[in-house]
Amino acid sequence: MDTFLRYLAVAGGGAAGAVLRYVINLSGLSKTAQPFPAATFVINVTGCFVIGFFLTLAEERIPVNPHLRLAIAVGFVGAYTTFSTFEYEAVRLVDSGKLPYAAAYVLLSLVLGYGAVLGGMFCARRIERAPGGAFQTSSISAGSRAVIGHEPDLSDESIDVDPVAIKDPHNRGAVPSDPDKRIS
Length: 184
Description:
2 strands; about 0% strand; two-stranded antiparallel ribbon; mainly alpha; 6 helices
């Protein structure tokens, strides 16, 4: 049953991410800076911010249910961001002889995407640590560490759903699931 819930979480988040991506592509943004692919650019940079913010928040500040983590980090951001479209649009710009646009698109996407991830992480770290939270119902694998470059993999195997123990966000080990017995 838990495997089904994980798939359902990814599917639900993916549906929301795909719809938002579609709405942004339909907006006037896609026509504002032609031939520069502004809609895809905005989607990718904001997706970088969202994943940087959410995963840092989930790892360092607020314990997050693993199903919600899968829904947002894998489902929503995975469907929302558009790396393959980014690559295709860059190649099309090169093929059409618009090298300055292609170079600007690739360079700005990489630099601002990287900056957006850092910005999301920075914003998440400004939030006070929460001793508990509405989303805290399960544990994250004991191997996870809140260090840049050492985030746990987002695959199903990296998230341990245990309804009894809750992983302490401060990496002090598992604590009882009863809120009255938690260590602050």
